[in-house]
Design brief:
two-stranded antiparallel ribbon, Aspartate Aminotransferase, domain 1, mainly alpha
């Protein structure tokens, strides 16, 4: 039933992501936005960035009613399912650093430019 809407939702998510990219770049905040190869198309089920002081930023956003979330706080090698691999903390430092920095901003097809401006303003306020 919802499959007929999928392409439209996908296009809307890409527009939302493009606005986030532009707004965050213009706000000069120390976050890393999603990287998309030129020959690929991102579906933006989530808009996940990397942010210094992620936990404090998350609390700041949530205190302002902004539904930012950390979906994957642990890299795979530190999750119980993979314990038998013997890859303990420190074995994959880049993945572990990413796990400490990832943060997903609100992302859905109906997200308005005004709502995004509020999200980006709150991020900029935090880093000032």
């Amino acid at each position: 039933v919802k499959l007929r809407y999928l392409d439209g939702w996908q296009e809307a998510r890409q527009e939302v992501a493009a606005r986030y990219d532009a707004m965050l770049a213009a706000s000069d905040v120390p976050v890393t936005t999603p990287v998309v190869r030129p020959d690929m198309r991102h579906v933006y089920h989530q808009y996940t960035l990397r942010a210094p002081r992620r936990d404090q930023l998350l609390a700041h956003l949530n205190s302002r009613g902004i539904g930012a979330v950390v979906y994957y706080p642990l890299p795979l090698h530190l999750q119980g399912l993979y314990a038998d691999l013997g890859l303990g903390e420190g074995s994959l430092p880049v993945a572990e650093q990413a796990g400490r920095e990832v943060l997903s901003l609100p992302m859905y097809p109906e997200l308005t430019e005004t709502q995004q401006e509020q999200v980006v303003a709150a991020i900029a306020e935090f880093y000032r």
